[in-house]
C-alpha cells in the first residue's frame, strides 16, 4: 500500500484539529463575524421597487452630513499650522489643531497619534491634512472618527492596548494619590493630593506636558519606550532577566529578585509565571528614576525590608551591600568595608532608634536616593560618590520650582528618543500619507505603540496593605 494512503486519514485528522483550533481563536471568530455580516448584506435580495424610496438607515461610519465643507475645514487647519515653526505641530500645538478640526480639546492626543506624531514628535501640515481628509470622507460622526484615529491600521474596532495612554495615567494617579497603597483611593487621599487641581487645570493649560504629575504625553512616551526596549517578545509582560537589562544592569540581582517577589506589586495578582505587567513597570520606573518621593521611598523600603517588620536592620543592609561589594570588586574598584559604609549611611539618615532604619527616618533625611543607590544601584552609587555630599545637600535644599528627578529624567530621555526616532525615520513631510495600506501597516509596525499585541488591563486592586506603618501620618510630618 502506498504510504500516502495510510497517512491520509491521520493527516486529515491533524488538518481538522488545526482547523478547529484556528476556528476557536478569538481573532478568527471576530474576522468571521465581520465577513458574515458583510456577506449577509451583500446577499440581501434586491429591494422591491417600492422600498427604493425608503432612505438608508444603516450607517456603520456615521450618518453622512451634507453640511460639512471639507475645503473650509482644511483651510482652517492650514491656518492653524501656519502659526507653528516649519508648519509642524508638536503635541503642545495640538490643542489649536483640535479646535480647527472642530474636535473637543482632548482629542488632541488621538489626533496627534492618528497622524503618526508619536513616531517623530511632531506632524507636518501635509501629513495631518491628508489624514484628516481621509477621516472626513470616511467617518461621519464622532464615534467613527475616534475609532479611526486610535485603531490599528486594518481594524475597525478598538482593543485594550489602543488605550495604553489612559491605562498609564491610571497607574500614575494611584502612584501619587493612593498614599496608603491600598488600591482604593479614599476621599481623604484625594483631598490631600493635587489630582483634582490637575484635572481642573487641563481646561486652562494648552500644553498637557506642563501637567507633569499625571497627564504628560512626554512621560507616557518615555515610559512606554523604556518598557518596549525590555519587552523583547512584546507580550507586555517582562521577566526578571528583562528587567535586569534596564539601564545596563545597574540594579543588583538581589533587588531585581525582590521586585519579583511581590514585595511591591500592591497585593495584585499581577505575576504570571515570574513576570510583571506594564502597570508594574510604571511603578518601577518612576520609583527607580526618582527615589525622593514618598511613594518611591516606600517602594524601595518594602523591597529592602526582607522580613517585613517595618524597619531595615543592619542585617538587611548588609545583605544588599554584599552584592554591591562584589560588583565593585569585579570592576576593580575598592569597596568600602560594610562597617564604614554603615557609618556613612547612619550619618546620612540619622535614624531615631539605634540599629534600625524606619520609613520615617528615610523620608525625613532628604537623601533617600543616595541611601538606596548605595545598596542596589551600582551606577548611581558611583555617581553619588563622585559628588560631595555637601553638594548633594545644597542641591536638595535649593528652593524654587525645581524639577523633580523624575521630571529631569523624563525630559532628557524624551529628547533622546525623539532624536533617535527622527534619525531613523525615512519618510517625512507627508510622503507616508500616500503609502499603500500595506506600507502604512508596515510603517506603523515600526512604532512601539502600534505593535503592542495585547495590553493587560490592571486587574482589580485588592486592599492588601502589607505594613501597618501609616504612610499617611508620615506625610503629615513637616520635613
Ligand atoms: Ca515579554
Ligand atoms: Ca526588616
The biggest beta sheet is recorded as: 2 strands, antiparallel
Helix content: 55-70%
Sum up the overall morphology in one term: globular
Number of strands: 6
Low-confidence stretches: 1-7, 427-479
Overall pLDDT level: 79
Task: Give me the CATH architecture of the domain at 217-391, please.
Answer: Orthogonal Bundle
- Category from helices, strands and their pairing: mainly alpha
Percent strand equals under 5%
C-alpha-based Rg, rounded: 27 Å
Look up the CATH topology of the domain at 217-391: Recoverin, domain 1
CATH class of the domain at 217-391: Mainly Alpha
User: What is the terminal separation in angstroms?
Assistant: 89 Å
Biggest sheet: strands side by side, in what order?
A: 1-2
CATH superfamily of the domain at 217-391: EF-hand
Bound small molecules, which ones? calcium ion
- Helical element count? 26
Written account of the structure:
This is Protein phosphatase 2 regulatory subunit B''beta. One of its GO terms (cellular component) is protein phosphatase type 2A complex. Pfam families: EF-hand_13, EF-hand_7, P2R3B_EF-hand. One of its GO terms (molecular function) is calcium ion binding. Keywords: Calcium, Metal-binding. The structure is a single chain. The protein has 479 residues and is mainly alpha-helical. Among the domains are: 9-36; 69-138, Orthogonal Bundle (Recoverin, domain 1), CATH 1.10.238; 155-211, Orthogonal Bundle (Recoverin, domain 1), CATH 1.10.238; 217-391, EF-hand (Recoverin, domain 1), CATH 1.10.238. It is 57% helix and 4% strand. It has 26 helices and six strands. The strands form three sheets. The protein has a two-stranded antiparallel ribbon with strand order 1-2. Helix 9 crosses helix 15. The longest helix has 22 residues, at 3-24. The radius of gyration is 27 Å and the shape is globular. The termini are far apart. 29% of the residues are buried. The model is unreliable at 1-7 and 427-479 (pLDDT under 50). One calcium ion is lined by residues 231, 233, 235, 237-238. Residues 305, 307, 309, 311-313, 316 line the site of one calcium ion.
Amino acid at each position: 500500500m502506498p504510504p500516502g494512503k495510510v497517512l491520509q486519514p491521520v493527516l486529515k485528522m491533524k488538518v481538522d484539529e488545526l482547523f478547529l483550533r484556528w476556528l476557536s481563536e478569538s481573532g478568527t471568530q471576530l474576522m468571521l463575524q465581520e465577513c458574515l455580516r458583510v456577506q449577509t448584506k451583500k446577499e440581501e435580495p434586491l429591494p422591491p421597487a417600492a422600498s427604493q424610496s425608503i432612505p438608508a438607515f444603516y450607517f456603520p461610519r456615521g450618518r453622512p452630513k451634507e453640511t460639512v465643507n471639507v475645503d473650509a475645514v482644511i483651510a482652517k487647519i492650514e491656518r492653524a499650522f501656519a502659526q507653528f515653526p516649519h508648519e509642524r505641530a508638536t503635541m503642545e500645538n495640538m490643542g489649536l489643531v483640535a479646535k480647527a478640526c472642530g474636535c473637543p480639546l482632548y482629542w488632541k492626543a488621538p489626533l496627534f497619534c492618528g497622524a503618526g506624531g508619536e513616531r517623530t514628535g511632531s506632524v507636518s501640515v501635509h501629513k495631518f491634512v491628508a489624514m484628516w481628509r481621509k477621516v472626513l470622507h470616511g467617518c461621519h460622526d464622532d464615534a467613527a472618527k475616534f475609532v479611526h484615529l486610535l485603531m490599528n491600521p486594518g481594524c475597525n474596532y478598538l482593543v485594550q492596548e489602543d488605550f495604553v495612554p489612559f491605562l498609564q495615567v491610571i497607574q500614575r494617579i494611584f502612584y501619587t494619590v493612593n498614599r496608603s497603597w491600598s488600591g482604593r483611593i479614599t476621599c481623604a487621599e484625594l483631598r490631600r493630593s493635587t489630582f483634582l487641581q490637575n484635572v481642573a487645570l487641563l481646561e486652562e493649560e494648552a500644553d498637557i506636558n506642563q501637567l507633569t504629575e499625571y497627564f504628560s504625553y512626554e512621560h507616557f512616551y518615555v515610559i512606554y519606550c523604556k518598557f518596549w526596549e525590555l519587552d523583547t517578545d512584546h507580550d507586555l509582560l517582562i521577566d526578571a532577566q528583562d528587567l535586569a537589562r534596564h539601564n545596563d544592569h545597574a540594579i543588583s540581582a538581589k533587588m531585581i529578585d525582590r521586585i519579583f517577589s511581590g514585595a511591591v506589586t500592591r497585593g495584585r495578582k499581577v505575576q504570571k509565571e515570574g513576570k510583571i505587567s506594564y502597570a508594574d513597570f510604571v511603578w518601577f520606573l518612576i520609583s527607580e528614576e526618582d527615589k525622593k518621593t514618598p511613594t518611591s521611598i516606600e517602594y524601595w523600603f518594602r523591597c529592602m525590608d526582607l522580613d517585613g517588620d517595618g524597619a531595615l536592620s543592619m542585617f538587611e543592609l548588609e545583605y544588599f551591600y554584599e552584592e554591591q561589594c562584589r560588583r565593585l570588586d569585579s570592576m576593580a574598584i575598592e569597596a568600602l568595608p560594610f562597617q564604614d559604609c554603615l557609618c556613612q549611611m547612619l550619618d546620612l539618615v540619622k535614624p531615631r532608634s539605634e540599629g534600625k532604619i524606619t520609613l520615617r527616618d528615610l523620608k525625613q533625611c532628604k537623601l533617600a536616593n543616595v541611601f538606596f543607590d548605595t545598596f542596589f544601584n551600582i551606577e548611581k552609587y558611583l555617581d553619588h560618590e563622585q559628588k560631595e555630599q555637601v553638594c548633594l545637600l545644597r542641591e536638595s535644599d535649593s528652593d524654587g520650582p525645581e524639577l523633580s528627578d523624575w521630571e529631569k529624567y523624563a525630559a532628557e530621555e524624551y529628547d533622546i528618543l525623539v532624536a533617535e526616532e527622527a534619525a531613523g525615520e525615512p519618510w517625512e513631510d507627508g510622503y507616508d500619507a500616500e503609502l499603500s495600506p500595506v506600507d502604512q501597516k508596515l510603517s506603523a509596525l515600526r512604532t512601539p505603540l502600534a505593535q503592542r499585541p495585547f495590553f493587560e488591563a490592571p486587574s482589580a486592586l485588592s486592599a492588601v496593605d502589607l505594613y501597618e506603618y501609616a504612610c499617611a501620618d508620615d506625610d503629615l510630618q513637616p520635613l
